[in-house]
Design brief:
639 residues; alpha/beta; ABC transporter involved in vitamin B12 uptake, BtuC; 6-stranded mixed β-sheet; 28 helices; 12 strands; ABC_transporter-like_CS; transmembrane helix
């Protein structure tokens, strides 16, 4: 998951679109001169652009969401055949054919997504591989599509080429005939440019950032309010639709379809293009697609194979495909993050530290009051008799506790006492087995984690879960409300209200970072931070959602005394804003300083619940958890 490399703010809105438009314009001028001496080059450029649309969509899956799909080649084939079908059967206008070729693969993507969103790793890859095989079999064996005779073909359609479609009265001629301008390449190049701009737009929004969170941890995404199931369906459908658009581009370039072009290896090659170029980077598919398409048709590769055959052996030599595979393995061995990814990491390693400055800074008065001011709604958490069992073991047995507004409640106890299990019951990781959990007037049992987050429950984890290649700002921004509630369409086409919300979210991020003391590192990537700073990033991410209940699972673990003191100050400021705070903690100095009420759990039950001094001096707590040395140390401290 690549970080968004900082650049001067005034260049951000238009620098990349200008670059894409410039390159696309040069490509259009180069390919449409009609001289007829560059037919093979024009076909190569057209194929690169057609595949680029598909690989850019695949980049959303592989690079951003962590879903490896071999079906992208099949979706490209569906789009190509659907477009040609609209031309042969309906003589449809170009834009109608384009719409059909986009919608049908997108719907097919929904079907596959519904079947695979619960799967991960090899299982997901195998299902998409099977889908690719099925699509190829249908196209190669179903008579209406010409089988291996191609589509269209002379015997069935009286021609082997589709009639050039028209766009606004402009005939789109393929790059197949000398002396004829290859006007079909204009929409193909434009579609490739639009795909890149779409990708760039998406990944810069909270909707796009949520995909990176899903890749890092689906558990975290759920606790940020993201419906992972629906979000995965949306991104698979979007990627499939983009593959369909790529299929239209392929049909425009070659005006004829052969099913063997869309065999299983196409899906494999598309994935390799993304990974070779650098998955997750906007330019990754550009470099990977161009490199592989060029190598597959490069005269130098064919010449090298002939040289092997003549000089080394006519039996033992690398074929063209073998040579390309060897080169790709060598590149990935040297650059595991891909060509663009490795270059970006090298740049981040050597860039000046000054480039990591925050792009949005806090210049208000009290950041805590900004986040939890007049709009804050004081809310009480009531946990009544909840239970949880794993097999025959009762991890939580009839636990009850209450957290009222402007109060910090600490849960302490030995390892295995059930503290984190209670937190997981409250946040929705585990289903409550008996008892009730209420937040204000909302009953939480039976409510999934993402809906609990939307109701105002925010939490951190025992070990920080951050996207290491995202900036601190982006890692905090994903905690905003729009990450959970925003739509793909809203991300692509922003409205004035969505822009205002985004600016408000950035202001909230600046306030949260100021509150936790991380404003100076806002532009750095998370993997550049110390462990203590990463914990504070998690806390800031929880705060930008403006929760009604803040749940912290061992927030001081791994922190030094100075960092613990700073954490205590932050939590006291939040309590002063009326926030309800529940934390699990082992640092008794922190508990004694900030906790208004302490619950000690032993063997899954509440052993003692009272103020901190009473609980920490209780004989049962001392015997089972703190040890008698704790009393001596405490006595010396108070002497």
């Amino acid at each position: 998951m690549p970080a968004r490399t900082p650049m001067p703010a005034r260049l951000r809105p238009w620098a990349f679109p200008l670059l894409v438009a410039l390159v696309a314009g040069i490509a259009i001028v180069y390919t449409t001169d009609g001289s007829g001496v560059r037919l093979s080059n024009n076909q190569q450029i057209g194929q690169i652009c057609a595949f680029l649309v598909a690989t850019t969509g695949l980049n959303l899956l592989v690079g951003r969401t962590g879903m490896h799909s071999f079906a992208q080649g099949g979706f490209l084939a569906i789009g190509a055949y659907a477009f040609v079908w609209t031309q042969l059967k309906w003589d449809a206008p170009f834009l109608v054919g384009l719409a059909v070729a986009t919608i049908i693969p997108a719907l097919a993507g929904v079907l596959i997504a519904v079947a695979t969103t619960k799967m991960r790793g090899p299982q997901l890859a195998m299902v998409t591989l099977i889908a690719a095989v099925v699509i190829f079999k249908v196209l190669s064996e179903w008579k209406p599509f010409g089988q291996f005779g191609g589509y269209p073909n002379v015997s069935a359609h009286g021609t082997s080429l589709i009639e050039p479609p028209s766009l606004f009265g402009w005939e789109l001629q393929p790059p197949l005939f000398g002396g004829t301008p290859a006007t079909a390449l204009v929409p193909v190049i434009v579609l490739a440019a639009l795909a890149l701009l779409l990708y760039r737009r998406l990944v810069g929004t909270t909707w796009g950032l949520s995909l990176s969170v899903i890749k890092q941890s689906e558990l975290l995404a759920e606790h940020l309010g993201v419906n992972v199931y629906l979000r995965k369906i949306a991104v698979v459908s979007l990627a499939a639709g983009m593959a369909g658009v790529g299929g239209v581009g392929y049909a425009l370039v070659f005006a004829h379809l052969q099913p063997e072009t869309f065999a299983l290896m196409l899906g494999v090659n598309l994935i390799v293009m993304v990974i070779l170029g650098g998955s997750g980077y906007v330019l990754g598919p550009v470099i990977g697609t161009a490199a592989i398409v060029y190598l597959q048709t490069a005269p130098s590769v064919a010449s090298f194979v002939r040289w092997e055959n003549d000089v080394i052996s006519d039996r033992w030599y690398l074929s063209a495909q073998g040579l390309i595979a060897f080169l790709m393995i060598a590149v990935l061995f040297a650059m595991p993050a891909g060509i663009v990814g490795s270059a970006a990491r090298l740049y981040r390693r050597w860039r000046p530290r000054t480039s990591a400055a925050a792009t949005t800074s806090w210049d208000g008065d009290d950041p805590a009051a900004h986040l939890f001011g007049e709009e804050a709604v004081p809310t009480e958490l009531v946990v009544d008799g909840v239970g949880l069992a794993f097999g025959g073991v009762r991890a939580v047995d009839g636990v009850s506790l209450t957290v009222v507004p402007e109060t910090i409640v600490a849960i302490i106890g030995p390892n295995g006492a059930g503290k984190s299990s209670v937190v997981n019951l409250i946040s929705g990781v585990y289903a409550v087995q008996g008892g009730t959990v209420r937040l204000g007037g909302d009953v939480l049992q039976g409510v999934p984690s993402y809906r609990r987050s939307r109701l105002g429950v925010a939490r951190t984890f025992q070990t920080p879960i951050l996207s290491p290649d995202l900036t601190v700002t982006d890692n905090v921004l994903v905690g905003s409300e729009q990450t959970a509630l925003g739509s793909c369409a809203g991300a692509v086409v922003p409205t004035p209200s969505s822009r205002r919300r985004h600016q408000r979210d950035l202001l909230d991020v600046a306030a949260a970072l100021e509150l936790v003391g991380l404003s100076e590192v806002a532009g750095r990537t998370a993997d550049e931070l110390s462990y203590g700073q990463q914990r504070l990033v998690e806390l800031a991410r929880a705060l930008v959602s403006r929760p009604r209940l803040l749940v912290l699972d061992e927030p001081a673990a791994g922190l030094n005394p100075t960092e613990i003191a700073a954490l205590a100050t932050i939590l006291e400021r939040l309590r002063g804003q009326g926030l309800s705070i529940l934390l699990v903690e082992h640092h008794m100095d922190l508990v004694r300083r900030i906790a208004d009420h302490v619950v000690c759990m032993i063997d899954g039950r509440v052993a003692v619940a009272a103020d901190a001094d009473t609980v920490l001096a209780d004989p049962q707590v001392v015997s089972a958890y703190l040890g008698h040395g704790h009393l001596e140390t405490t006595g010396d401290r108070h002497a």
